[in-house]
Amino acid sequence: MSVSHSVSTPRVAAVIGLGSMGFGMALSLKRAGLEVLGADVSPEAVARFVSEGGRGFTNLPAEIGEAEIVVSVVVNAAQTETVLFGPEGIATKMRPGAVFISSATMDPAIARRLSARLEANGIHYLDAPISGGAARAAKGELTIMASGTHAAFAAARPALDAMAAKVYELGDAAGLGAAFKMINQLLAGVHIAAACEAITFAAKQGLDLEKVYEVITASAGNSWMFENRIPHVLAGDYTPLSAVDIFVKDLGIIQDMARSERYPVPLSAAALQVYLAASGAGMGRDDDSSLARLYAQLSGAQLPEKAE
Amino acid sequence: MSVSHSVSTPRVAAVIGLGSMGFGMALSLKRAGLEVLGADVSPEAVARFVSEGGRGFTNLPAEIGEAEIVVSVVVNAAQTETVLFGPEGIATKMRPGAVFISSATMDPAIARRLSARLEANGIHYLDAPISGGAARAAKGELTIMASGTHAAFAAARPALDAMAAKVYELGDAAGLGAAFKMINQLLAGVHIAAACEAITFAAKQGLDLEKVYEVITASAGNSWMFENRIPHVLAGDYTPLSAVDIFVKDLGIIQDMARSERYPVPLSAAALQVYLAASGAGMGRDDDSSLARLYAQLSGAQLPEKAE
């Protein structure tokens, strides 16, 4: 162990992507005693992180080489690839033996490809999609669906412990974490669409929607998403906690995977069309429960409006 | 109060339809101290009921006039209409002031029509779809989604108390109970199809299905139906607890309602196609989790087989 890593010197981690999830994860790492570098293209996001005592960058700096652990919290596979192998890519800047923890939801085949390419550079890759919202990210209570080599897990452990309440270890190869996450996203995406189809159908029939919520959440028709998202509809509040376009992306990945594997997904396909319609109608950046507003627009159903 | 209803003489109820649900409901009524007449077209079902000490009939007998409460536990609206107004129909045999508790899942518009016709005969109608399986029916722990006049509720109360752990009182007119039940069935039907689409997609990718079940039931992709039905798939056991054809029927009602109300239901419509395919492929009377077997047949995915 070098002098710079004696017990009195904190270990260094980096977080790339300081959005609502990445920001909270970076704070969780700091709270666990790591020194944290944070990078984001948004100067506002970086300033917010610096004000919390972090070292901030609006590019992918050479300083990333100080980090033993790099956590990537970008939006998708394309951004992950750019972070690693783009013109400013960090694959050549990371120190040998460091680990890249990849959190973006993506096609498992792409996770396998990125992993193979990075491991060839002597750097570990942990396929580690996350679930849980911004609030749980800030508290270090995420759920992480992880897969990778034993060495990747070992190198990532201090960060996993700091960021997550629950880490599923899903196998010794990249791609398994991504595959589990996609199964979850298939279900989550269909359930939100079904919840919105159902609650607006209830509105169309003039049912008492608060009563519908009470009955369904206690019945066999319940889902985690119905219980979590329908309160937004009842409050008429579509402030984005998770946006429609997230599921345009994730159900799109499902379609691509299913087409490539010759596997029919009629439910997910129907759900994607509803998300696309909501996004096309201008609600792409609104809360995903906005699908209820789309059903209302299409049918003349009356949904609750937000109290002023 | 007439002599025949002194405290020492039990009140009389009748149950029409002694299938897995009706049989349990009849036993719950007996346990609560009511004298119970039971009718079913199946001699075996009637014999089973008689062996439990009930008075059984394979037709709709004139003795139904003894009952203050008639519970109808038939399959659908058409059978309910036959029970009431068919050639042997009981609408003209029931005693004035008695209540007809209608449990079949049906289009709310039909429930309103049947109710109006029966109430014109001086007989109360309680729109009272049930949920919960045969085990809860036998224990008197069903959930009932009920609507009807105050008089109908009052007359039905001893039976409701005997049969249900939870009675939702959803309004003072028939049709509301049916509408709430249909919202539940829309969600339940879509969630089973989504669960089967997801678990078989996981199998197609070679994931550890027990692990998928563990992760999903603890994640945002969970639903009551995923948690309840996927164990059948993991065990390879498609013994019918609830059959594919139940959802062919119920999602069919959703389609009819939605078409008549000009309300689009793309998720329910896609789900119905999957149930139809499973039924058409010969699995109509198997457990509704058989949709997973359909997905496997269509894609070459390997699902667990039943241990011998």
UniProtKB/TrEMBL annotation, chains A, B:
An example Gene Ontology molecular-function term: 3-hydroxyisobutyrate dehydrogenase activity
Keyword Transmembrane helix: yes
Keyword Iron-sulfur: no
Top-level class of the enzyme under EC nomenclature: oxidoreductase
Domain 3-hydroxyisobutyrate dehydrogenase-like NAD-binding residues, every copy: 175-295
Keywords: Carbohydrate metabolism, Membrane, NAD, NADP, Oxidoreductase, Transmembrane, Transmembrane helix
A Pfam family reported for this protein in Swiss-Prot or TrEMBL: NAD_binding_11
EC code: 1.1.1.411
Taxonomic superkingdom: Bacteria
Annotated 6-phosphogluconate dehydrogenase NADP-binding domain residues: 14-171
Transmembrane segments: 12-29
Reaction catalysed by this enzyme: L-threonate + NAD(+) = 2-dehydro-L-erythronate + NADH + H(+)
PANTHER family membership: 3-HYDROXYISOBUTYRATE DEHYDROGENASE-LIKE 1, MITOCHONDRIAL-RELATED, L-THREONATE DEHYDROGENASE
Family: Belongs to the HIBADH-related family. L-threonate dehydrogenase subfamily.
Function noted in UniProt: Catalyzes oxidation of L-threonate to 2-oxo-tetronate. Can use either NAD(+) or NADP(+) as cosubstrate, with a preference for NAD(+).
Name this protein carries in UniProt: L-threonate dehydrogenase
